[in-house]
Amino acid sequence: MSEGAGKAHEKRKIQAIKGVRDILPPETALWNRVEQTAHEVFATYGFGEIRLPIFETTELFARSIGADTDVVSKEMYTFATGYDPHSLEESIPGRTITLRPEATASVCRAYIEHGMHTLPGNVKLYYMGPMFRRERPQKGRYRQFYQIGAEVLSHSGDLKDDARVDAEVIEMLTTFFEKAGLEGTALYLNSIGCKECRPKYVELLRAALAKVKDKLGPDSQRRIETNPLRVLDSKLESEQAIIEKLPRIAEHLCPDCLEEYTEVKKQLAMRGISYTQNFRLVRGLDYYMRTTFEITAPGLGSQNAVCGGGRYDGLVELLGGPPTKGIGFAIGTDRVILSLQDMRKLPVERALEVYVAWMGEKNYPAAVKIARRLRDAGLAVELPPGEMKFGKALGLADKLGARYALIIGDDEVASGQFTVKRLEDGEQKKLGERELVAYLKAGEAP
Ligand code: AMP
Question: Are 297 and 338 in contact (CB under 8 A)?
Protein backbone atom coordinates (compact mmCIF):
# COMPACT_ATOMS: atom_id res chain seq x y z
CA MET A 1 0.00 0.00 0.00
CA SER A 2 1.37 3.45 -0.89
CA GLU A 3 1.80 5.99 1.87
CA GLY A 4 -1.01 8.13 0.43
CA ALA A 5 -3.51 5.27 0.43
CA GLY A 6 -2.57 4.48 4.02
CA LYS A 7 -3.38 8.02 5.10
CA ALA A 8 -6.74 8.00 3.31
CA HIS A 9 -7.56 4.80 5.16
CA GLU A 10 -6.66 6.37 8.50
CA LYS A 11 -9.00 9.30 7.92
CA ARG A 12 -12.04 7.27 6.86
CA LYS A 13 -14.92 7.86 9.26
CA ILE A 14 -15.62 4.83 11.43
CA GLN A 15 -19.29 4.27 12.08
CA ALA A 16 -21.25 2.07 14.46
CA ILE A 17 -22.06 -1.30 12.90
CA LYS A 18 -25.47 -2.14 11.45
CA GLY A 19 -28.22 -2.67 13.98
CA VAL A 20 -26.43 -1.12 16.95
CA ARG A 21 -26.74 2.47 18.05
CA ASP A 22 -25.60 5.12 20.47
CA ILE A 23 -28.05 6.46 22.99
CA LEU A 24 -27.32 10.10 23.62
CA PRO A 25 -28.37 12.76 26.08
CA PRO A 26 -31.07 13.94 26.63
CA GLU A 27 -32.56 10.51 25.71
CA THR A 28 -30.36 8.81 28.30
CA ALA A 29 -32.20 10.74 31.02
CA LEU A 30 -35.38 8.97 29.91
CA TRP A 31 -33.60 5.58 30.01
CA ASN A 32 -32.39 6.27 33.52
CA ARG A 33 -35.88 7.22 34.61
CA VAL A 34 -37.40 4.06 33.17
CA GLU A 35 -34.69 1.86 34.72
CA GLN A 36 -35.04 3.63 38.05
CA THR A 37 -38.79 2.97 37.96
CA ALA A 38 -38.06 -0.74 37.48
CA HIS A 39 -35.60 -0.78 40.42
CA GLU A 40 -38.19 0.88 42.64
CA VAL A 41 -41.29 -1.08 41.61
CA PHE A 42 -39.57 -4.48 41.56
CA ALA A 43 -38.09 -3.86 45.02
CA THR A 44 -41.60 -3.29 46.41
CA TYR A 45 -42.47 -6.81 45.19
CA GLY A 46 -39.43 -8.30 46.92
CA PHE A 47 -37.19 -8.78 43.86
CA GLY A 48 -33.42 -8.40 44.10
CA GLU A 49 -31.16 -7.38 41.23
CA ILE A 50 -28.86 -9.93 39.61
CA ARG A 51 -26.00 -8.78 37.37
CA LEU A 52 -25.17 -11.41 34.80
CA PRO A 53 -22.31 -11.95 32.37
CA ILE A 54 -22.74 -10.60 28.84
CA PHE A 55 -21.37 -13.84 27.39
CA GLU A 56 -21.84 -17.48 28.30
CA THR A 57 -21.03 -20.85 26.81
CA THR A 58 -22.97 -21.39 23.58
CA GLU A 59 -24.25 -24.63 25.07
CA LEU A 60 -26.26 -22.77 27.73
CA PHE A 61 -28.42 -21.07 25.09
CA ALA A 62 -28.51 -24.01 22.71
CA ARG A 63 -29.75 -26.31 25.44
CA SER A 64 -32.26 -23.96 27.05
CA ILE A 65 -33.70 -21.98 24.15
CA GLY A 66 -33.74 -24.92 21.73
CA ALA A 67 -31.64 -25.61 18.66
CA ASP A 68 -34.65 -25.27 16.28
CA THR A 69 -35.52 -21.72 17.29
CA ASP A 70 -34.63 -18.71 15.13
CA VAL A 71 -32.60 -17.29 17.99
CA VAL A 72 -30.28 -20.27 18.29
CA SER A 73 -30.21 -21.38 14.67
CA LYS A 74 -29.45 -18.04 13.06
CA GLU A 75 -29.39 -15.03 15.38
CA MET A 76 -26.63 -15.67 17.92
CA TYR A 77 -23.25 -13.96 17.96
CA THR A 78 -20.95 -16.86 18.63
CA PHE A 79 -17.16 -16.81 18.87
CA ALA A 80 -14.53 -19.47 19.02
CA THR A 81 -12.41 -18.92 22.08
CA GLY A 82 -9.84 -21.57 21.39
CA TYR A 83 -9.90 -22.58 25.02
CA ASP A 84 -12.30 -23.99 27.52
CA PRO A 85 -13.96 -20.97 29.16
CA HIS A 86 -13.95 -22.87 32.44
CA SER A 87 -10.24 -23.48 32.45
CA LEU A 88 -7.70 -21.25 30.81
CA GLU A 89 -5.10 -24.00 30.65
CA GLU A 90 -7.15 -26.61 28.90
CA SER A 91 -7.45 -25.95 25.20
CA ILE A 92 -10.57 -27.46 23.61
CA PRO A 93 -10.81 -26.55 19.93
CA GLY A 94 -14.35 -25.80 18.78
CA ARG A 95 -15.60 -24.70 22.18
CA THR A 96 -17.51 -21.47 21.67
CA ILE A 97 -18.98 -18.62 23.63
CA THR A 98 -22.04 -16.54 22.74
CA LEU A 99 -23.17 -12.99 23.45
CA ARG A 100 -26.37 -13.48 25.41
CA PRO A 101 -29.51 -13.26 23.24
CA GLU A 102 -31.68 -13.21 26.39
CA ALA A 103 -31.10 -13.63 30.11
CA THR A 104 -33.51 -16.25 31.48
CA ALA A 105 -31.05 -19.05 30.75
CA SER A 106 -28.30 -17.15 32.60
CA VAL A 107 -30.57 -16.54 35.61
CA CYS A 108 -31.30 -20.28 35.78
CA ARG A 109 -27.61 -21.12 35.41
CA ALA A 110 -26.77 -18.72 38.25
CA TYR A 111 -29.62 -20.14 40.37
CA ILE A 112 -28.08 -23.60 40.05
CA GLU A 113 -24.47 -22.47 40.35
CA HIS A 114 -25.11 -20.61 43.62
CA GLY A 115 -27.40 -23.25 45.12
CA MET A 116 -30.25 -20.74 45.40
CA HIS A 117 -32.80 -23.55 45.78
CA THR A 118 -31.71 -23.70 49.43
CA LEU A 119 -32.82 -20.11 50.02
CA PRO A 120 -36.07 -19.64 51.95
CA GLY A 121 -39.22 -18.95 49.93
CA ASN A 122 -39.41 -18.19 46.24
CA VAL A 123 -36.31 -16.77 44.59
CA LYS A 124 -37.19 -13.46 42.90
CA LEU A 125 -34.57 -11.88 40.70
CA TYR A 126 -34.51 -9.09 38.14
CA TYR A 127 -31.89 -7.88 35.68
CA MET A 128 -31.39 -5.19 33.08
CA GLY A 129 -28.89 -4.79 30.28
CA PRO A 130 -28.03 -5.39 26.63
CA MET A 131 -28.93 -8.51 24.64
CA PHE A 132 -27.66 -9.47 21.18
CA ARG A 133 -29.49 -11.04 18.26
CA ARG A 134 -28.57 -10.92 14.59
CA GLU A 135 -32.05 -9.87 13.43
CA ARG A 136 -32.94 -7.69 10.46
CA PRO A 137 -32.77 -4.16 11.90
CA GLN A 138 -35.79 -1.87 11.68
CA LYS A 139 -37.59 0.60 13.94
CA GLY A 140 -37.81 -1.06 17.36
CA ARG A 141 -35.64 -4.00 16.33
CA TYR A 142 -31.91 -3.83 16.89
CA ARG A 143 -28.99 -6.21 17.07
CA GLN A 144 -27.94 -4.85 20.42
CA PHE A 145 -31.10 -4.10 22.35
CA TYR A 146 -31.92 -3.77 26.00
CA GLN A 147 -34.16 -5.74 28.27
CA ILE A 148 -35.43 -5.36 31.81
CA GLY A 149 -36.55 -8.74 33.04
CA ALA A 150 -37.58 -10.59 36.17
CA GLU A 151 -37.90 -14.25 37.15
CA VAL A 152 -39.53 -16.11 40.03
CA LEU A 153 -38.08 -19.55 40.73
CA SER A 154 -39.84 -21.83 43.17
CA HIS A 155 -39.54 -25.38 44.36
CA SER A 156 -42.85 -25.76 46.15
CA GLY A 157 -46.49 -24.89 45.66
CA ASP A 158 -49.48 -26.32 43.83
CA LEU A 159 -51.19 -25.23 40.62
CA LYS A 160 -53.22 -22.62 42.47
CA ASP A 161 -50.07 -21.13 44.00
CA ASP A 162 -48.44 -21.05 40.55
CA ALA A 163 -51.41 -19.15 39.15
CA ARG A 164 -51.14 -16.61 41.95
CA VAL A 165 -47.45 -16.12 41.29
CA ASP A 166 -48.20 -15.63 37.56
CA ALA A 167 -50.85 -13.04 38.35
CA GLU A 168 -48.63 -11.20 40.81
CA VAL A 169 -45.81 -11.02 38.25
CA ILE A 170 -48.27 -9.54 35.74
CA GLU A 171 -49.55 -7.12 38.40
CA MET A 172 -45.96 -5.98 39.00
CA LEU A 173 -45.57 -5.39 35.26
CA THR A 174 -48.73 -3.33 34.94
CA THR A 175 -47.59 -1.28 37.95
CA PHE A 176 -44.22 -0.74 36.29
CA PHE A 177 -45.76 0.43 33.00
CA GLU A 178 -48.14 2.73 34.85
CA LYS A 179 -45.36 4.29 36.94
CA ALA A 180 -43.12 4.61 33.87
CA GLY A 181 -45.91 6.66 32.27
CA LEU A 182 -46.62 4.30 29.37
CA GLU A 183 -50.23 4.67 28.23
CA GLY A 184 -52.41 2.52 26.01
CA THR A 185 -50.71 -0.79 26.81
CA ALA A 186 -52.65 -4.01 26.21
CA LEU A 187 -52.10 -7.38 27.86
CA TYR A 188 -52.55 -10.56 25.81
CA LEU A 189 -52.79 -13.92 27.50
CA ASN A 190 -52.65 -17.53 26.46
CA SER A 191 -51.80 -20.95 27.81
CA ILE A 192 -49.60 -23.10 25.61
CA GLY A 193 -50.07 -26.27 27.63
CA CYS A 194 -47.38 -28.58 28.91
CA LYS A 195 -45.37 -31.54 27.67
CA GLU A 196 -48.47 -33.71 28.14
CA CYS A 197 -51.01 -31.78 26.10
CA ARG A 198 -48.94 -29.62 23.76
CA PRO A 199 -47.55 -32.44 21.58
CA LYS A 200 -51.09 -33.75 21.06
CA TYR A 201 -52.29 -30.27 20.10
CA VAL A 202 -49.32 -29.79 17.78
CA GLU A 203 -50.29 -32.99 15.94
CA LEU A 204 -53.89 -31.76 15.68
CA LEU A 205 -52.64 -28.44 14.34
CA ARG A 206 -50.30 -30.16 11.89
CA ALA A 207 -53.18 -32.25 10.55
CA ALA A 208 -55.40 -29.16 10.20
CA LEU A 209 -52.59 -27.30 8.43
CA ALA A 210 -51.96 -30.20 6.05
CA LYS A 211 -55.55 -29.82 4.82
CA VAL A 212 -55.02 -26.15 3.89
CA LYS A 213 -51.38 -26.46 2.83
CA ASP A 214 -51.99 -25.24 -0.74
CA LYS A 215 -53.44 -21.97 0.49
CA LEU A 216 -50.39 -21.16 2.67
CA GLY A 217 -47.22 -19.29 1.72
CA PRO A 218 -43.86 -21.08 1.44
CA ASP A 219 -42.71 -20.15 4.99
CA SER A 220 -45.83 -21.57 6.62
CA GLN A 221 -45.76 -24.63 4.35
CA ARG A 222 -42.26 -25.38 5.60
CA ARG A 223 -43.27 -24.81 9.21
CA ILE A 224 -46.04 -27.45 9.03
CA GLU A 225 -43.19 -29.92 9.38
CA THR A 226 -40.60 -28.00 11.40
CA ASN A 227 -42.64 -25.97 13.89
CA PRO A 228 -46.40 -25.72 13.21
CA LEU A 229 -47.00 -23.42 16.21
CA ARG A 230 -45.02 -20.74 14.41
CA VAL A 231 -47.64 -20.64 11.63
CA LEU A 232 -49.95 -19.01 14.18
CA ASP A 233 -47.41 -16.17 14.37
CA SER A 234 -47.66 -15.42 10.64
CA LYS A 235 -48.37 -11.82 9.65
CA LEU A 236 -49.15 -12.68 6.00
CA GLU A 237 -52.44 -11.04 5.03
CA SER A 238 -53.53 -13.97 2.85
CA GLU A 239 -53.14 -16.45 5.74
CA GLN A 240 -55.13 -14.58 8.38
CA ALA A 241 -58.58 -15.98 7.59
CA ILE A 242 -57.14 -19.52 7.52
CA ILE A 243 -55.39 -19.11 10.89
CA GLU A 244 -58.63 -17.89 12.50
CA LYS A 245 -60.22 -21.27 11.75
CA LEU A 246 -57.36 -23.45 13.11
CA PRO A 247 -57.78 -25.40 16.35
CA ARG A 248 -56.84 -23.38 19.43
CA ILE A 249 -54.61 -24.75 22.17
CA ALA A 250 -56.67 -23.31 25.03
CA GLU A 251 -59.43 -25.68 23.93
CA HIS A 252 -57.11 -28.71 24.07
CA LEU A 253 -55.43 -28.29 27.44
CA CYS A 254 -55.02 -31.20 29.85
CA PRO A 255 -56.91 -30.88 33.17
CA ASP A 256 -53.90 -29.45 35.07
CA CYS A 257 -53.14 -26.83 32.43
CA LEU A 258 -56.80 -25.90 32.19
CA GLU A 259 -57.00 -25.56 35.98
CA GLU A 260 -54.01 -23.26 36.07
CA TYR A 261 -55.17 -21.15 33.10
CA THR A 262 -58.64 -20.71 34.63
CA GLU A 263 -57.09 -19.72 37.94
CA VAL A 264 -54.70 -17.20 36.33
CA LYS A 265 -57.66 -15.48 34.66
CA LYS A 266 -59.55 -15.44 37.96
CA GLN A 267 -56.53 -13.99 39.75
CA LEU A 268 -56.11 -11.25 37.14
CA ALA A 269 -59.81 -10.35 37.39
CA MET A 270 -59.50 -10.23 41.19
CA ARG A 271 -56.60 -7.75 40.78
CA GLY A 272 -58.59 -5.60 38.34
CA ILE A 273 -56.20 -6.32 35.46
CA SER A 274 -57.86 -6.51 32.05
CA TYR A 275 -56.53 -8.79 29.34
CA THR A 276 -57.42 -10.23 25.97
CA GLN A 277 -57.00 -13.92 25.29
CA ASN A 278 -54.91 -14.51 22.21
CA PHE A 279 -54.65 -18.08 20.99
CA ARG A 280 -51.94 -17.05 18.53
CA LEU A 281 -49.49 -16.13 21.28
CA VAL A 282 -46.97 -18.93 21.11
CA ARG A 283 -43.61 -17.44 22.22
CA GLY A 284 -40.56 -18.19 20.11
CA LEU A 285 -38.58 -19.93 22.83
CA ASP A 286 -38.96 -23.67 23.41
CA TYR A 287 -38.93 -23.77 27.19
CA TYR A 288 -42.17 -21.89 27.76
CA MET A 289 -45.23 -23.76 29.04
CA ARG A 290 -48.73 -22.93 30.32
CA THR A 291 -49.09 -19.20 30.99
CA THR A 292 -47.70 -16.98 28.24
CA PHE A 293 -48.33 -13.30 27.83
CA GLU A 294 -47.36 -10.30 25.82
CA ILE A 295 -47.84 -6.59 26.35
CA THR A 296 -48.11 -4.16 23.46
CA ALA A 297 -47.81 -0.39 23.42
CA PRO A 298 -48.84 2.27 20.90
CA GLY A 299 -46.60 4.26 18.55
CA LEU A 300 -44.34 1.38 17.52
CA GLY A 301 -45.65 0.18 14.17
CA SER A 302 -45.30 -3.54 13.54
CA GLN A 303 -42.79 -4.12 16.37
CA ASN A 304 -45.32 -3.23 19.04
CA ALA A 305 -44.58 -5.86 21.72
CA VAL A 306 -42.92 -4.20 24.69
CA CYS A 307 -42.88 -7.28 26.90
CA GLY A 308 -43.04 -11.02 26.55
CA GLY A 309 -43.15 -13.57 29.30
CA GLY A 310 -44.37 -16.85 30.59
CA ARG A 311 -43.90 -19.92 32.67
CA TYR A 312 -40.98 -22.28 32.17
CA ASP A 313 -41.21 -25.07 34.77
CA GLY A 314 -38.51 -27.59 33.99
CA LEU A 315 -35.88 -25.26 32.51
CA VAL A 316 -33.71 -25.37 35.63
CA GLU A 317 -33.83 -29.16 35.55
CA LEU A 318 -32.91 -29.14 31.86
CA LEU A 319 -29.78 -27.20 32.85
CA GLY A 320 -28.79 -29.75 35.46
CA GLY A 321 -30.53 -28.27 38.53
CA PRO A 322 -33.22 -29.59 40.85
CA PRO A 323 -36.91 -29.68 39.75
CA THR A 324 -37.91 -26.02 39.82
CA LYS A 325 -40.84 -23.95 38.61
CA GLY A 326 -40.23 -20.66 36.86
CA ILE A 327 -42.12 -17.67 35.55
CA GLY A 328 -40.66 -14.49 34.13
CA PHE A 329 -40.77 -11.75 31.55
CA ALA A 330 -38.53 -9.48 29.54
CA ILE A 331 -39.43 -5.90 28.73
CA GLY A 332 -37.90 -4.41 25.58
CA THR A 333 -36.49 -1.17 26.98
CA ASP A 334 -35.76 0.34 23.54
CA ARG A 335 -39.42 0.00 22.61
CA VAL A 336 -40.67 1.39 25.94
CA ILE A 337 -38.52 4.47 25.27
CA LEU A 338 -39.78 4.78 21.67
CA SER A 339 -43.38 4.59 22.85
CA LEU A 340 -42.80 7.19 25.58
CA GLN A 341 -41.16 9.48 23.02
CA ASP A 342 -44.10 8.97 20.68
CA MET A 343 -46.37 10.14 23.51
CA ARG A 344 -44.10 13.17 23.95
CA LYS A 345 -43.21 11.97 27.43
CA LEU A 346 -39.77 13.45 27.25
CA PRO A 347 -37.39 13.56 30.15
CA VAL A 348 -36.97 16.72 32.10
CA GLU A 349 -33.24 17.14 31.75
CA ARG A 350 -31.24 18.54 34.58
CA ALA A 351 -31.07 22.24 33.67
CA LEU A 352 -27.89 24.20 33.96
CA GLU A 353 -28.28 26.43 36.98
CA VAL A 354 -25.16 28.58 37.05
CA TYR A 355 -22.75 29.70 34.38
CA VAL A 356 -19.55 31.13 35.86
CA ALA A 357 -18.50 34.08 33.70
CA TRP A 358 -15.00 34.83 34.93
CA MET A 359 -12.48 37.33 33.57
CA GLY A 360 -8.79 37.85 34.22
CA GLU A 361 -6.41 34.86 34.40
CA LYS A 362 -5.56 35.65 38.02
CA ASN A 363 -9.24 35.29 38.98
CA TYR A 364 -9.52 31.73 37.64
CA PRO A 365 -8.62 30.10 41.01
CA ALA A 366 -11.42 32.05 42.69
CA ALA A 367 -13.82 30.87 39.95
CA VAL A 368 -12.73 27.24 40.48
CA LYS A 369 -13.26 27.58 44.22
CA ILE A 370 -16.74 29.06 43.98
CA ALA A 371 -17.77 26.54 41.28
CA ARG A 372 -16.77 23.69 43.57
CA ARG A 373 -18.64 25.27 46.47
CA LEU A 374 -21.83 25.58 44.40
CA ARG A 375 -21.54 22.02 43.05
CA ASP A 376 -21.07 20.80 46.64
CA ALA A 377 -24.37 22.46 47.38
CA GLY A 378 -25.93 20.38 44.59
CA LEU A 379 -26.15 23.04 41.86
CA ALA A 380 -25.39 22.28 38.20
CA VAL A 381 -22.53 24.60 37.29
CA GLU A 382 -20.65 25.28 34.07
CA LEU A 383 -17.17 26.73 34.41
CA PRO A 384 -15.61 27.61 31.04
CA PRO A 385 -11.94 26.57 30.88
CA GLY A 386 -10.83 29.68 28.99
CA GLU A 387 -11.22 33.37 29.61
CA MET A 388 -13.98 35.10 27.64
CA LYS A 389 -15.29 38.63 27.31
CA PHE A 390 -18.36 39.08 29.53
CA GLY A 391 -20.63 39.70 26.55
CA LYS A 392 -19.61 36.43 24.91
CA ALA A 393 -19.78 34.50 28.18
CA LEU A 394 -23.31 35.78 28.89
CA GLY A 395 -24.38 34.89 25.35
CA LEU A 396 -23.12 31.33 25.81
CA ALA A 397 -24.78 31.09 29.25
CA ASP A 398 -28.04 32.01 27.55
CA LYS A 399 -27.61 29.46 24.76
CA LEU A 400 -26.86 26.71 27.28
CA GLY A 401 -30.10 27.57 29.07
CA ALA A 402 -28.45 28.60 32.34
CA ARG A 403 -30.70 30.23 34.93
CA TYR A 404 -27.99 32.44 36.38
CA ALA A 405 -24.69 33.91 35.36
CA LEU A 406 -22.18 34.43 38.13
CA ILE A 407 -19.81 37.23 37.27
CA ILE A 408 -16.30 37.03 38.67
CA GLY A 409 -13.86 39.83 37.86
CA ASP A 410 -11.25 41.85 39.75
CA ASP A 411 -13.82 43.79 41.81
CA GLU A 412 -15.69 40.68 42.90
CA VAL A 413 -12.53 38.86 43.99
CA ALA A 414 -11.23 41.90 45.84
CA SER A 415 -14.50 42.56 47.70
CA GLY A 416 -15.73 38.96 48.14
CA GLN A 417 -19.10 40.12 46.79
CA PHE A 418 -20.19 38.25 43.68
CA THR A 419 -22.45 39.64 41.01
CA VAL A 420 -25.20 37.22 40.05
CA LYS A 421 -27.49 37.87 37.11
CA ARG A 422 -30.81 36.11 36.62
CA LEU A 423 -30.85 35.53 32.88
CA GLU A 424 -34.62 35.34 32.52
CA ASP A 425 -35.19 39.01 33.46
CA GLY A 426 -31.68 40.43 33.84
CA GLU A 427 -32.11 41.14 37.57
CA GLN A 428 -28.69 41.58 39.22
CA LYS A 429 -27.58 41.21 42.82
CA LYS A 430 -24.31 41.46 44.71
CA LEU A 431 -23.97 38.76 47.34
CA GLY A 432 -21.32 37.30 49.63
CA GLU A 433 -20.46 33.59 49.25
CA ARG A 434 -22.85 32.26 51.90
CA GLU A 435 -25.86 34.34 50.75
CA LEU A 436 -25.02 33.44 47.18
CA VAL A 437 -25.45 29.71 47.80
CA ALA A 438 -28.73 30.28 49.62
CA TYR A 439 -29.99 32.57 46.87
CA LEU A 440 -29.08 30.24 44.02
CA LYS A 441 -30.60 27.25 45.78
CA ALA A 442 -33.81 28.99 46.75
CA GLY A 443 -34.09 31.25 43.72
CA GLU A 444 -34.53 34.29 45.95
CA ALA A 445 -32.44 36.59 48.07
CA PRO A 446 -32.04 35.56 51.73
P1 AMP B 1 -38.21 -12.13 23.79
O2 AMP B 1 -36.97 -12.24 24.63
O3 AMP B 1 -38.00 -12.48 22.36
O4 AMP B 1 -39.39 -12.75 24.43
O5 AMP B 1 -38.56 -10.57 23.73
C6 AMP B 1 -39.04 -9.84 24.82
C7 AMP B 1 -39.15 -8.38 24.43
O8 AMP B 1 -37.84 -7.90 24.09
C9 AMP B 1 -39.96 -8.13 23.17
O10 AMP B 1 -41.32 -7.98 23.48
C11 AMP B 1 -39.38 -6.84 22.67
O12 AMP B 1 -39.94 -5.73 23.35
C13 AMP B 1 -37.92 -6.94 23.06
N14 AMP B 1 -37.07 -7.37 21.91
C15 AMP B 1 -36.84 -8.63 21.46
N16 AMP B 1 -36.00 -8.62 20.42
C17 AMP B 1 -35.69 -7.33 20.18
C18 AMP B 1 -34.85 -6.64 19.23
N19 AMP B 1 -34.14 -7.30 18.33
N20 AMP B 1 -34.78 -5.28 19.30
C21 AMP B 1 -35.47 -4.59 20.23
N22 AMP B 1 -36.26 -5.18 21.15
C23 AMP B 1 -36.38 -6.52 21.14
Answer: no
